[in-house]
Each structure stands twice: as structure tokens, then as C-alpha cells.
Fold this sequence. Notes:
InterPro entries: Acyl_CoA_acyltransferase, GNAT_acetyltra_YdfB-like, GNAT_dom. The protein is an alpha+beta fold and 268 residues long. It has 2 domains: 16-106 and 250-263, 3-Layer(aba) Sandwich (Aminopeptidase); 109-247, 3-Layer(aba) Sandwich (Aminopeptidase), CATH 3.40.630. Mean pLDDT is 89; it is low at 7-13 and 262-268. It has a 12-stranded mixed sheet with strand order 1-2-3-4-5-12-6-11-10-9-8-7, with helices on both faces. It is built from 8 helices and 12 strands.
Amino acid sequence: xxEEIARRRMTPGAGEWASWFPPGMPGLGAMPDHMRFARTGxxxxxxxxxxxxxxxxxxxxxxxxxxxxxxxPEALAPLAYGYFAVPDRFLPLLGEAFERIVPWERMLWVxxxxxxxxxxxxxxxxxxxxxxGADAAAVHGLGxxxxxxxxxxxxxxxLAASGRCWGAFHxxxxxxxxxTYFRGSLYEDIAVATRPEERxxxxxxxxxxxxxxxxxxRGTLPTWTCSRHNEPxxxxxxxxxxxxxxxxxxxAVGASAVRTGRQAAALA
Length: 268
């Protein structure tokens, strides 16, 4: 069995599971810290006390730790169509649990120095500023294609009110934003979303510069994660002063391969 457990049960130092999801990690590794801080995501374990295996899920991403043999493949059905960052020992379990498992090469970047000057925003007059809770409607107005940017904060309202988001506006319309996607204790992994028709004007770089200044003032380090094949994202990271830290792989999975129905439905 693999069940969701109360968030308050998964506190730092609460048992062996804590070593599976250590605090203070960069990139996607900051997700456990973010889930505790923002009180978001879901916590799963094979049993409520002294778990042998556990999983953390947030905005379609899953981290797993412990013994994969303690997790039956059908228990992962609720986590279909997501992304898994797991130790190699979990790969046979994923292969049994899902119809498709595709490795996705990723890059993790860290910015340690001052953010260099970026090229100026071109075109119409734009205001780049820190966002507030009053900007929730503007984030929602980015539309379904860019709605993923608010996923780790449970939606536009909490993202806008987080104090960890910078936006570029023209006549009150949000054109681009950069935000802390996963807020860790030592690192803040950031994400950027820009309207397709506004790309290439320096808007994202300007937002990133403001956000990184805030992160540095908080005493944490900005990180950036992207696909190895996403050239625009890689160029923006380099322009914003990020340097490659390491490369890794996480896995995109498809539908559940176990269709017995009863156990999966009970866990949904």
C-alpha cells in the first residue's frame, strides 16, 4: 500500500525518511523545503510511521526515497503523466508502473556572482517590478499555456502574494515574469514565463535580474534548471550570470500500466 499522509507528520528529523529528502539542496532538490515552507504538494508513504519508502509530489514532479520493493506498481497510478527524479534503484518500479518512461536530460545552473548588466528592454515602455497579491489577476491573465508557472504555489493568488516574483508590465498587462519556483533553505530555484509574442525583447532577463537581487538579499542562492536541449533557456541563464553546476536526468512517465482498477481507485 502507498498512501497520502498528513503533511505535519513529515517534519525535519522525523526519521530515516529525512535522509531521503535532505534540506538545503539546489534545483529540484529544493522541492521538499518548498513544500514545508509553502504548505503545498502531497506526501506519500507505504505506511504512516517508520515508512520503508516515501514520495513527495508537487506541480507534477515526484521525488522518491527508501526501498522501491516496498511500493507495489499499482500504487503509483495517481502519479501518472508526471516527472520523476529518483535514484536508479527505482527505475524498474517505474518501468512496471507506467506504460511509458522517457529520460529527460536536464541542466542545473547556480548563480554565485553579481548579476551582470543585461541588454535593455526594447519596444514599448515597460515597468519591471516586484509583484504583490494585487497582481493575481495579471498572473491568471497569462492564460492556460503559461499557467504552469503558478503550479508550485497552488495558483496565481499565492504566487503573486509570495513576495518572490518579478513581472514586466505594459499598461497593466503582464508580459513576462520570473519567480521562485521552489523555495529552499539555501537555494531558490527560479522559473520564467513570457508571452510568446513578447519574447526576444529582454523582458525575462530584466525580471530575472530583479528577482536575483531579492534572492541574494535574503542570503540564499538562485538556481536555474532547464532541458539540455532548451537553447533559449540556456542562453538566458548564461546572460543572467548563472554557471553550469551539474547535469542530471529525470523521467517523464505516461499512463499507469496497471489497470486492475480497485487498488488504484482506492488510492486516487
